[in-house]
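In this section we walk through a basic example: taking a raw amino acid sequence and producing a predicted 3D structure, encoded as discrete structure tokens. The instruction is simple. Fold the sequence below.
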Amino acid sequence: MMFRVTHTTTYSYSDSVDLCYNETRIKPRSFSRQVVQSSSMNITPSADDYRERTDFFGNYVSYFCMQKPYREMIIKVISDVKILGNQGRDPLQQPISWEETLKTLSSCLDEPTINARQYTMASPLVPVFPELREYVSQYLEPEKPLVLVARDLMAGIFHDFRYVPGFTTITTSLTEVMRHRQGVCQDFAHVAIGCLRSIGLAAGYMSGYLETLPPPGQEKLVGADASHAWFTVYVPGWGWVHFDPTNNQLPDQQHIVCAWGRDYSDIIPINGVVYSSGKDELEVSVDVSRIG
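The resulting token sequence is shown next.
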């Protein structure tokens, strides 16, 4: 499956901005499940300095600054991505149990497992606390395959938590999300990650895009797709398996990955500093269209 992703971010200000510095992580990355065939970023007005690099996790980072006054800034990224998905393999057939996975994480010295260990510990936005361990314990039958533990946890979050846009912000704590049992995709991913880490498993945060399909008989609206977040679990012998608790599904052909890290703080899409005394407005438009 081939997709063209158009991500447009518009910042409008009531007073001029004299200087800004920004970092973005909105260019998709290539890995075993997808191949980025092209990706370009256009910034209006043009940046005075622009650089690209990869961060610790291998995500694409674009840095730019503007040193001339402006009232509106538009960042537009167009990417063509080929989705390979699971390539006919079923990750839910992996038999290794969650107990055996814990042993592997603590004793195995191969590179994938050593790399996965950093995802077993608490991170800035995902602390580990007793309520998380209590929630996941209902899915921890003896010798149960790890992938089924993660699948059932995903389904549990889907059924037990309400999707309520605007209820949380990036500053809402995970304890608040657990208390109120509501939030958005970012929160649900953090809940799952915290639950799995609370028992010593390796879980990471995925950021990207989701193709949305219109109701039957209706045209797809341009810009109506969305940035999205889900979680991933390290399964020895397979690698990382993705789970989407917002939609209760295993990502395959409709999820496009931009970046991954320990939690949202590692992969903030746009982060920076602006020097201005005016108020700002933000508008984001995402369009995911099939091109082959």
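Looking at the output, two observations stand out. The chain has six helices and 14 strands. The chain has two domains: 2-84+268-290, 91-265. In the next section we compare this with other chains.
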